[in-house]
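User: I need a structural model of TadE-like from Albidiferax ferrireducens for a docking pre-check later this week. Nothing fancy, just the predicted structure tokens so I can convert them on my end. Input:
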Amino acid sequence: MKKRTLRHSFQRGVAAVEFAILLQLVLVPMILGTTELGHAIYSFNTLDKTVRDAGRHLSQHGPGDATIAAEAKCLAVYGTTDCSGSPVAPGLTTAMVSICDASLCPGTHANQSTGLGSINLVTVSIPSYAFDSLFKFVIPNDFSFNNISVTLRAQL
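Assistant: Understood. Predicted structure tokens for TadE-like:
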């Protein structure tokens, strides 16, 4: 049986200490960063889907109906036409949703000429939604999504 040398006994546990340092400095922030990036992408896709649903709802009705516009804003924020439930994203309100149709923006959305005649447009947008990050060292507090918007052809 070999006798352990003094130098060998000092090396015991070094791998565990090195792994702990690596875990703390590299792996944990990388995992949290990946999780936070996934959270941001999920939030953006959720907002994009609700804006498309609101635009689709507006495009099925004529321009200038205040009830339909209010329902579209509720669709963009809550995912329902009656504003029930909680917002699909933290801090999102109906005041943050912008709607433009042939009656609200006649210069840009009414009677747009195409090769086959003219069409009316509807636009629903959420400009500069401020994303609320869970881990501030990954995504800073002042991070905002660009204008999330959809423009569709409206019913005449």
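Before docking, keep this in mind: The chain has a mean pLDDT of 85.
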